[in-house]
Amino acid sequence: MSQSVHMSVLLDEVLTALGDIKDKLVVDGTFGAGGYTRAFLEHGARVIGFDRDARVKPYVDAVSAEFPDSFQWINRPFSEMAEGLADVGVEAVDAVVLDIGVSSMQLDEAERGFSFMRDGPLDMRMSIDGRSAADIVNEDSAEDIAHVIWLYGEERKSRGIAAAIVRRRAEQKFERTLDLAEVVERALGGRRGAPVHPATRTFQGLRIAVNDELGELERALEVSEAVIKTGGVLAVVTFHSLEDRIVKNFFAERCGKLPSGSRYAPEVKAANDPTYELVTHKAQGPSDAELARNPRSRSAKLRAGRRTAAATWSEQTVSGKPSTNKVRS
Hints:
Keywords: Cytoplasm, Methyltransferase, rRNA processing, S-adenosyl-L-methionine, Transferase
CATH topology of the largest domain: Rossmann fold
InterPro entries: RsmH, SAM-dep_MeTrfase_MraW_recog, SAM-dependent_MTases_sf
GO molecular function: rRNA (cytosine-N4-)-methyltransferase activity
Enzyme class: transferase
CATH superfamily of the largest domain: Vaccinia Virus protein VP39
Order of helices and strands: HEHEHEHEHHHHHHHEHEEEHEH
Distance between the termini: 38 Å
CATH architecture of the largest domain: 3-Layer(aba) Sandwich
Strand order of the largest sheet: 3-2-1-4-5-9-8
Number of domains: 2
Largest sheet: 7 strands, mixed
Strand content: 5-15%
Radius of gyration: 21 Å
Number of helices: 14
């Protein structure tokens, strides 16, 4: 459980975005190995950590032993933040931090089935519920498999990969990660010295589909707006363009401007009062030092916003006019 192995990406940038968190209540929506949580606690914050993966419990126990009075953990996905906070008697918090995607801990454990570099059961579930990656590749149609790989993995050759998967499963079902990785690699003509493994996008697409990661992110952004106090900060670290686009558009909308769809057209002002103001005016990436220390951080981006006193977007929409949310302070 070494903390040095599981590096928290963009930690310095996240801490800067949050500002002074001494005696503040911070939600770490993606506890993982506890890297962010530990840093927040060391800066004097009180932390409530969320994680739907019950297998993080050893890391939870380690942090709890060190910070028994200022840390608690809730075994729920971050999209259920409001319900989880209500269960422990908390109505509003000073900050929410979300680190989206799969953790190094999950990637490095072959038995979790996330990695195309380590052999393990073809699972990819962050929790023990729902369909696994094996279920998708062994049961779904070629069209549906191609859609998942194209939409979530942004793989241009998704149809060819899906066809190869369906041909192979007719002979033998997929059970192992390296088995699937080899089929994808052959379907794409081998590695040919490519710096990125040919199965990268396929595995990404399956993982996102299995865990409904984009849906979870969208729901978590909505929920965060309802639980963060006026002046509190929402900080989100993403790792690929699909996630970052969702976060970028969310902040654009909630800051009072909607994307126009054209770089030549003016931005469209939103009808509701802004619920956020930007803390980071453009996405922040890792420093050269961090890249050298942790190559996995290369695609990471941080976006952050500060909560205004306006009612949540949904409350304004229902009421038909802007209003101040009474739990904001």
